Amino acid sequence: MKYPIVNAICKMRRERLIALSIFASLVLTVIIVSMVELLLRGTVTWDYLLTGALTSPLVTLLVVPIIIKYSKVFLESEANAAVLAVAAEGIAVVDIETKKIIYVNPSYSELYGYTQDEALHLGVEQLHPPETISRVVGVFERQSRGEQIVEKDIACLRKDGSVFFADVRAKPTIINGRNVLVGLFTDVTARKQTEEALRESETWYRTLFEQASDIMFTLEIVPHRSPVIRSVNPAALRALGYSSEELIGASVDKLEPGVSAAVIRQRQMQASESGMVAFEARHMRKDGSFFDAEVRACEFLTEGKRVGIAVARDISERKNAERILRDAKESAEKANHAKDLFLSTLSHELRTPLTAILGWAQMLKSGRLDPSKAKTGFQTIEEAAQAQNQLISDLLDVSALPGNEWVEI
């Protein structure tokens, strides 16, 4: 037979069949010997033997059922063998006493990289990484005693030295008088890699969440209501002055009192449509004080629920710097305006005395003024010069003042 282990599984049925076959064979032998003797004596002819004896009721009753039954067992054995051959899971039969393989199906060979012939008589210890042998042997013994059926995530060692993971379901039985363990191996390497990737991602996220200096929240998006806080990081507790118990389960309105429902709906709509929303807000601490915050929030669907993550950064210092810069700009603009006004006034004040001096100087130079007029001219020139001198002195004094006092002047 092509699959001897399958035949062995049918052993008990065949033993009964063989016993019946032996009995039928003995009866048939007696019949044949008797027929041959009658033929030699000339009592019967060949035609009678071929058409009568072999189709006699006795032969029919004894032989035909045996042939039919044996054919049925054979066909069932072949069907079972075919099932084992095409099974997606690896199947192995291991001798409990020696822990050696006595049968594997093609899927098992494909999993491990051994041919079916190579796999035969390999020991359990040769099919698993050395560091896992103690675990594997313990599982094997418990499954051999029927104390355990399933063991998950067992590391298995391929022929090429690579490792894959399998869930193993096994039960003990008896085949050909040998105590064996029949095991079903399901490759779960892809599932395990996915689970490990998820665990690693969760670890990274948790580390980022716990260690971030920015305020972080996870939110539950509730229809027609403000988002509800589901978790907060330590930075949020420090910045806001609350305990986690005081914030978890609270609405975000607690952090931004006075914000309108329309504004919250608009933010939620933008986050839902584009996946992210950014805005500035005034957050209130537990003690009632406020600080400026820059908030970025995203929304996504997980396990049928809409959830969000919000990251807020205290931008109070930046806002203060912006206010200082804005005030400085306003002061500079005022200074420029004052400077322009001052220069305009200074130009006028300088030109007024000079005009008087130049005018009287030209008239005196002409020699046509009488003594009284000339005296008035000299007096006017002297007064204008003194005014000009005083103006220059004042200008020098102003230039020595600090900028802010100069602007006020």
Structural key phrases:
Beta-Lactamase, 14 helices, 409 residues, alpha+beta, 4 domains, rod-shaped, 10 strands, five-stranded antiparallel β-sheet
Account of the 3D structure:
With 409 residues, this protein is an alpha+beta fold. It has four domains: 4-85; 87-191, Beta-Lactamase, CATH 3.30.450.20; 212-314, PAS domain (Beta-Lactamase); 328-408, Signal transduction histidine kinase, dimerisation/phosphotransfer (DHp) domain (Helix Hairpins), CATH 1.10.287.130. It contains 14 helices and ten strands. The strands form two sheets. A five-stranded antiparallel β-sheet has the order 2-1-5-4-3, with helices on both faces. It has a five-stranded antiparallel β-sheet with strand order 7-6-10-9-8, sandwiched between helices. β1 (90-95) and β2 (101-104) form a beta hairpin. It is rod-shaped and about 185 Å long.
Biggest sheet: strand arrangement? 2-1-5-4-3
Describe the sheet with the most strands: 5 strands, antiparallel
What's the CATH architecture of the largest domain?
Answer: 2-Layer Sandwich
**CATH level 1 name of the largest domain:** Alpha Beta
Q: Give the CA-based shape.
A: rod-shaped
- Distance separating the two termini: 117 Å
Mean pLDDT: 79
- The portion of residues forming beta strands comes to 15-25%
Number of strands: 10
CATH fold-level label of the largest domain: Beta-Lactamase
User: Could you estimate the helical fraction of the residues in percent?
Assistant: 55-70%
Number of domains: 4
Number of helices: 14
Please give the radius of gyration in angstroms.
53 Å
Q: CATH superfamily name of the largest domain?
A: PAS domain
Classify the secondary structure makeup into a structural class. Answer: alpha+beta
Low-confidence segments, given as residue ranges, are: 8-13, 58-64, 66-76
